[in-house]
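Journal club prep — side note

Before the paper discussion, L.F. wants everyone to see what a predicted structure for a comparable chain looks like in token form. Sequence:
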Amino acid sequence: MRLRPKRCSRADNNLVFDLQGDGFQPPPPAGNQAPKSPTLTRCSVFPSSFFPIKPAAFTCKACGQPLKSQLPGATTVVCPVLPAIPATSSPLELYLPSDAQPQQFGLVEFDLATTTVFKNPFDPDQADLVVHYTAPNGKTMTIPAFWYQAYDATGSSPCGKPGWKARLTPTLTGQWRAQAELVSQHILSDKVSFQVTASTSKGFVRLNSNNPHYLAFDNGETFFPIGLNIGWWQSDPLKDYQRWMDELHQNNGSIMRVWMADWSFGIEWNDTGLGDIPSACARHGCWTGI
């Protein structure tokens, strides 16, 4: 918002905003003292910004111009068609979609189904559900599964039903195996085998093995991060970040900072309790990320 008063008086060297009212006005002199002479001899552009708590119309009393404001809105996005998880009576099942094409350093996503119901699936003390992976070289790793609910871009309308998912980024090509486990009940799923093919991905960014003062991809190529602080959006989160990310990429940018503020992309809330994501989503809406 840029305020351009049409005229200045001797008291107009400061401005006071009353966001609970409909405008602003110069501050009154203290006591019976006459206003001090301004340090500026001419009118200037007064740049300012504020965050309204609800859509409203404000009036600039100094310049007589309406100042319309509204809360940031999200781009309307239709929910995608999500694949259905097969119904099962088994206590624990692990599924890899039939159209999955696992590649080295690519995302491999599994669906899990269990007959066990948890009061809070986000609490690992209640739902200790993990997946064990065995790489082609025999090494194993265990990664927690997670409870997932897709939402539209506004974060207020769920897409489909929630369910369990697990993700893996394989670093090696060849035959992999996966097996889910409900640790607290000592329940194992059937093993799932899948073939990982080569890709053109550079891999993860790690400390450079030749010089730990620098970073490098898994393929040995040096990674030098160049980016910006892009903490929050201005008017539309999806359009703003899409535009900023595209322009950053076009200028060879490779990193950005986003602030997970409580009024923006907050996950935990004081009024719902730590780890109570379902209540937080129901009360505040859920952002699935950008």
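L.F.'s comment for the group: The chain has three domains: 10-23+37-71, 92-201, 206-284. Keep this in mind when we get to the figures.
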